[in-house]
Amino acid sequence: MARRRGKQYRIGNASRGALGISSRRRMFVSQEKQAQHQAARKLKLWSRVVAAVAVIGIGLVAGFFVWFFMVPYFHQEIIRNVEAEGPEGSMEPVPDYDELGLPIYDNSMSLFYINSQSPAPEYEPKLSSLENVRVDSRIADALRQLVAAAKEDDMVLIFSEGFVSAEEQGERFEKTAREMMNDENMTAVMAKTTARAITPMAGESDFQTGLCLRLAGDKETYERSKTYSWLKANMGKYGFVFRYPEGKTNFTTVDPDPTVIRYVGGENAAAMQQRSMCLEEYVSYIDDQ
């Protein structure tokens, strides 16, 4: 009996000893895992810090690039789009608009003209293609509305000529002078003098402004046409007048031509029609006020 108890006691002690060793092993493993876990947390934290620093650095570089390079670039582009140059190179303000929604330009643009007394061989406006001709871009909307209004009244406006460069005008003048020399047996001096009233010399044609348009038709009979009557009654509200009316050669230095219209702006067109003035005559009248 005593032996059995002793054996049981030894077994119990052995069991408790085994349990103690196992417990110490478990405690040792748990601390090791805890250290590994803490190391992993630190590594993860540092990874986040490094990533955040990298993102901030990239953001600062991008901000520096945008502020010192992109912002000045777009600022200059905006200025270039807003600024426009008038006939003499001065900056032109953004125009107001009339009741038809058409821009109202300063007289330095609307009343600028070219003729034999005021040549401008180097002048060339910014152009737009419209109705198969080229015109100053600033009158494109007015021309569109004029054409649309004519269509509403069953009128079709067909244009045969718009902007003409100084070089092309010079070629036309020389051709007209040669024809007069050959057909009329004129001397070179007489032919050029006579041709000048029909076909202006280079740099002396108002078509070079891009504000004149020639309508398709015979200028000898055009005043008797329905289109002419419609234009005379309606084109003024869109800013157009006849450029070379009858009886104004002393002012225009060009023979009368009812097929040529010219943009001057709505207010000026109304004043010119009321006073029966051509462009040169009206500008002189304005200057005297």
Outline of the structure:
Helices cover 55% and strands 12% of the residues. It has helices spanning 2-82, 107-110, 140-152, 166-183, 188-198, 226-234, 249-252, 266-275, 279-288, and strands at 84-85, 91-92, 96-97, 103-104, 127-130, 133-136, 159-161, 212-215, 240-244, 257-263. Helix 4 crosses helix 5 (188-198).
What is the secondary structure topology, with strand pairs?
Blueprint: H1 2-82, E1 84-85, E2 91-92, E3 96-97, E4 103-104, H2 107-110, E5 127-130, E6 133-136, H3 140-152, E7 159-161, H4 166-183, H5 188-198, E8 212-215, H6 226-234, E9 240-244, H7 249-252, E10 257-263, H8 266-275, H9 279-288
Antiparallel strand pairs: 1-2, 3-4, 5-6, 7-8, 8-10, 9-10
Helix pairs in contact: 4-5
What are the defining features of this structure?
two-stranded antiparallel ribbon, alpha+beta, 55% helix, disordered N terminus, 289 residues
